[in-house]
Amino acid sequence: MASCMASSLFQKHLLLLIALPIVISSSPALRCHDSIISFGDSLADTGNLLHISRSEGRPTHAGFLPYGETYFRRPTGRFSDGRLVIDFVAEWLGLPYVAPYYGDDGGRSAADFGKGVNFAVAGATALDAGFFEGRGMGNSVPNESLGVQLGLFKELLPSLCDTSSDCKEFLGKSLVLLGEIGGNDYNYPFFMGSHLEEIQDLVPLVLEEIVSAISELIDLGAETILVPGNFPIGCLPAYLTEFQSSDKEEYDPSTGCLNWLNEFSQYHNEQLQRKLNHLRELHPQANIIYIDYYNAALRFYESPDKFGFDGGILRACCGGGGTYNYNSSALCNSNARVCDDPSAYASWDGIHFTEAAYRWIFKSMADGSCTVPKLDISCPSLAFE
Ligand SMILES: *[C@@H]1O[C@H](CO)[C@@H](O)[C@H](O)[C@H]1NC(C)=O
Ligand SMILES: *[C@@H]1O[C@H](CO)[C@@H](O)[C@H](O)[C@H]1NC(C)=O
Questions:
Q1: How remote is the CA of residue 156 from the centroid of ligand 2, in Å?
Q2: Does the annotation mark 349 as catalytic?
Q3: Ligand 2, closest atom to CA 330?
Q4: 134 lines ligand 1 (CB under 6 A)
């Protein structure tokens, strides 16, 4: 049962409030923001891995069509057919798409980062890569952990502002997107066959990294930090394929998702929210907002028709065939089976979502229905499409 507060009545009410210049004053206000600073993984990567992988001569598969076919009409390194949540946030705030730190096709320089910079790298983990190396998973984990990303940001910061108080002001006026991060810390061991108990033991370590990054950003001057939780991984074609079971009891009869995997995501999310509560007590001036990605996405599986997902909600739009159109040896690429209409699918490539799904997730965040506390909109330039 999805528990985001969304209801069509609420959304109409909110639209009305936006149409009229009325300010909602009961919850912390999301101010006008001059820039977006983002940390994370493939859910928010706007081109970093593509740039890194190209410079290493082995471009990621997200550097080829059909990636990007719907919106940018070319592959940008985003792991989707079009825009990601971070892109919709940028449009919403009237800011340019957040520039990938490592550079994009246009070869951006630091001067362009005043309105936003994105450190998110596909495959990145919250825990340092060395942690996984010690556990025999080193080859697959990029050295782009949350700590590494934060270190790069601290190196860059002096080029974006002058004095320390200047920098505090700059960061105070920035919207910080912290995550989603941590999903890969679990993905790698899940797909390498680690036991659930071992993976559960990682949760407090992952959260420690997230908490320490938030604390550091607040010390640097951050005032508004959005922290998404994890998605219902038991509904993703990659997990459904890898952990396919003949035991019907393992599946939720109403959605077809794997219960034990969704319970794991919920466990991470509950623990994350506890940590965020504690951080709010320590930093009452900061606006720490949890984004409930789990329930925002679970609604797709509970009532796909409401979202126009009539292509087969548990199947990927682009993949190597099979029950869920996902095959880890034949990932989404130009030779894959690509659906005609990606907007009829929630899953793009079996792991990542379609632009259509990301847009719904963005909406449930922007209207405050899937955020804690409720996201408030008081910036006059903000407008829904
Ligand atoms: C990751 O990169 C940093 C430098 O950016 C280096 O100090 C560290 O040893 C690297 N870690 C691994 C596991 O390669
Ligand atoms: C997955 O793809 C590989 C490589 O194309 C192929 O050999 C294999 O049969 C596929 N597996 C399934 C279950 O379709």
A1: 44
A2: yes
A3: 2
A4: no
Any atom of ligand 1 within 6 Å of the Cβ of 130: yes
**Closest protein CA for atom 13 of ligand 2:** 322
The angle at the Cα of 305, spanning 303 to 309, to the nearest 5 degrees, equals 105
What digits encode the pLDDT tens for the residues 2-37? Answer: 567 644 334 444 444 444 444 443 344 455 799 999
Fold of 32-309: Rossmann fold (3.40.50)
The H-assigned helical ranges of 223-352 are: 237-242, 259-282, 293-302
| Cβ atoms of 354 and 342 closer than 8 Å | yes
Residues contacting residue 104 through CB under 8 Å, at least 6 positions apart: 46, 47, 50, 51, 76, 77
CA of 328, closest atom in ligand 2: 1
112 catalytically annotated: no
Beta bridge partners of 48: none
With a cut of 70, list the residues of the chain below it in pLDDT.
1-3, 5-31, 105-111, 377-385
CA atoms of 344 and 308, how far apart (whole Å): 6
Catalytic residue among 41, 87, 349, 367: 349
pLDDT digits (tens, 9 = 90+) for 324-337: 999 999 999 988 98
Q: Is the pTM of this model over 0.85?
A: yes
Q: Whole-angstrom Cα distance, residue 291 to residue 289?
A: 6
Question: In ligand 2, which atom is closest to the CA atom of 327?
Answer: 1
Here the tokens at position 219 are: 């010390």
Give residue 166's pLDDT.
95
Domain boundaries, the chain: 32-309
268 by DSSP, 3-state: which? helix
The whole-angstrom separation of Cα 52 and Cα 245 is: 37
Q: Is 278 a catalytic residue?
A: no
Give 141 Cα–ligand 2 centroid separation in angstroms.
24
